[in-house]
């Protein structure tokens, strides 16, 4: 930076320090925005505590304790990429995308609260459901047989759609952004004779698997038989998802789409 030479040495050092700190803060804030209120955030807090403990015990000459805390920090650090691969992948993919619109935080949290409550209330009452949360690449590729609603999301609307006997209950609900874009979507079924898992799946799960294999959308399946909530992404299914984990994955998906 030749122009730095024109400044007094102390001013140049201060300016470079301010730039370095500002850029570092922006990078940290950018990545933390993806992981806030997710499992990754808890892991980062744990790593911070272990690092601080290791540093403090080292300066206090508590050799044995310092080695133990440093070993724990190293093990946890190595485990993060494998344990939190879905969240990290979403963050990296979004970081490389060409455009990013920030969702209103309060609106997003309200949506997550309502969706989580509705999905698990349906599961508790053995009401089946199939919900697709679109990403940018999956739009227009999921289904052409659907009823377009473009309605503001609400618990009452979602649960009414999946109530047995209503005109739109048979098929999938498609969520685009924070709205119910469509309902009664007819989906192609996954049909792989070499996949033994498909033989034990019902129609709803096979339809969800088919979408997850063909697109990057997140698929939510509510089993009316077992009352379980399953998530499907990239051809992989996670069954028996709990509310906290469900909320975390949906939040990461919506953050990546926005």
Fold and architecture overview:
With 258 residues, the chain is α+β, with helices and mostly antiparallel strands. The protein has two domains: 2-95, no CATH class; 105-257, DNA integrity scanning protein, DisA, N-terminal domain (YojJ-like (1, 3-Layer(aba) Sandwich), CATH 3.40.1700.10. Helix content is 53%, strand content 14%. The protein contains nine helices and seven strands; from the N terminus they run αααααββαββααβββα. It has a seven-stranded mixed sheet with strand order 2-4-3-1-5-6-7, sandwiched between helices. A hairpin with a 6-residue loop joins strand 5 (218-222) and strand 6 (229-233). The longest helix has 27 residues, at 9-35. The chain is elongated and about 70 Å long. Residues 97-102 have low confidence and may be disordered. It is an enzyme of class 2 (transferase). Its EC number is 2.7.7.85. One of its GO terms (biological process) is cAMP biosynthetic process. It comes from Candidatus Similichlamydia laticola. It catalyses: 2 ATP = 3',3'-c-di-AMP + 2 diphosphate.
Essential attributes:
alpha+beta, elongated, seven-stranded mixed β-sheet, YojJ-like (1, 2 domains, 258 residues
What's the short version?
Helix content is 53%, strand content 14%. It is α+β, with helices and mostly antiparallel strands and 258 residues long.
